[in-house]
Amino acid sequence: MDRITRKALKKDAFAEEVGRTVTFIEKHRRTAAWCAGAVLLALILGVAWRYYSRHQHQLRQQELAEALRIHNASVGPEPGNPNLLTFPTIAERQKAAIKAFQTLAAKYPGTEEGLIARYYLGTIYADQGKMGEAIKAFQEVAASGHEDFASLAKFALADAYAQQGKLADGEKLLRELIERPTMLVSKEQATISLARLLARSKPQEARKLLEPLRTQPGAVGRVALTALSEIATP
Predict the structure, then answer these.
(1) Predicted TM-score of the model (pTM)
(2) Which residues are within 8 A (CB) of 79 and not within 5 positions of it... i.e. 6 or more apart?
């Protein structure tokens, strides 16, 4: 009898709970519908945003590819193939590349494509001897917070400082890169560049940096040997 009573009580309690739930939904049907609609809208917006982001990324990639196509175009007489981009002079090619990279950097600031465009602007300005503008472009990329691109900009910036005679500033950047190498700037690259920067002022330290690298296989060893040969013997 006791077991039946407990079973009946449980059944009654369950029925009562279901009843309360149904009553709550009936009273708040409009609120529940709004909530469901909000969740559905959030899902739709999430899918739309992902699609929009992918689309925007593709657009940036296409514009960067076109800017690089200009930057790497041939110089000389027009070819017979209309698909090959050619400029009559290097100056005209640089002018067109600067315009393309400036547009990309201004249009997509903070994106990877925008940072790459600004880095290339720095390299063109450096080739033109406009070291002030080159340093400004490299500094912006170096301060971007993107580790890989920032390291590449710092590497170029160290060379720009060296050309201006700011050896201490260049040395500081290269030592940072040696301590924290990235995918785009290896420890060996930074070490060889630092040795070359120190070759005149601190030749003994430069040799000390290069000695462990000269026996490495491949390009690193060859470049290290060349750098060693360039250091004057005291």
Answers:
(1) 0.72
(2) 86
